[in-house]
Amino acid sequence: MPHLLQLDSSADLQNSVSRSLTGLFADTWRSLGDEHTVLVRDLHRSPLPHLPDAGLHYAARLRTSTERPDPDAEALQAELIAEVTNADVLVVGAPMYNWSLPSTLKAWIDYIHVLGTTVPFDTPDRPFAGKPVVIVSSRGNTYAPGTPGEGTDSVIPPLQQTLGTSLGMSVSVVTAELTLAERIPPLAPLAGQAAESLAAAQDMVRALATKLGS
């Protein structure tokens, strides 16, 4: 059964663009057939505790004698890793907050990025290699090439590094820009561009869900 893991991290529960896009991805996924299942982990509604012990960065066999994580924290880590393992595809809502990603999403990454377990260290094992992950990032301004914001996006590059380069997942990126065009007067002249960006993101989300779920 094709299985999707949907992760949301936006603090906006009413008008979130990233939530609307991950939801559209999930709806498109479900429309492909009753066998297409979805697990939603809402990192804002049910935030993970920030990593309580540095030993959780490592597989148990690689920890020092003084690194003894709490068993409950180890169990939570195992649960989160299992959710990724059991998913055929991931869609990750990653809105830009102050030029970076929400801390709730960063906490999730810290739990699943584990040397010697999900990341090669003393063995070449990389269990998530090739697993498709779609990053859906909304941002209030524009960070496209040639704009003043070019080069200041600190959301997509670290996600590509951790999920793609390090964990070996197959990363696709969907962005919706200028989401604050209707709220911030200086951006108002770009409202048309914002609408085009959102429409393009919606089309891309539908296409990726259909492709990856077929």
The total beta strand count reads: 5
The CATH superfamily label reads: Flavodoxin domain
From N to C, what is the helix and strand string? EHEHEHEHEH
Determine the CATH topology. Answer: Rossmann fold
Q: Count the DSSP helices.
A: 5
N→C terminal distance: 11 Å
Domains counted in the coordinates: how many? Answer: 1
Strand coverage percent: 5-15%
CATH architecture: 3-Layer(aba) Sandwich
Feature tags:
single chain; 214 residues; alpha/beta; Rossmann fold; five-stranded parallel β-sheet; 35% helix
Strand and helix map with partners:
Layout: E1 3-8, H1 17-31, E2 37-42, H2 71-86, E3 89-93, H3 103-112, E4 132-138, H4 156-166, E5 170-176, H5 191-213
Parallel strand pairs: 1-2, 1-3, 3-4, 4-5
Helix pairs in contact: 1-5
Structure in words:
- The protein is of the alpha/beta class.
- It has one domain: Flavodoxin domain (Rossmann fold), CATH 3.40.50.
- It is built from five helices and five strands.
- It has helices at residues 17-31, 71-86, 103-112, 156-166, 191-213, and strands at 3-8, 37-42, 89-93, 132-138, 170-176.
- Strands 2-1-3-4-5 form a five-stranded parallel sheet, sandwiched between helices.
- Helix 1 runs parallel beside helix 5.
- The model has no long low-confidence stretch (mean pLDDT 96).
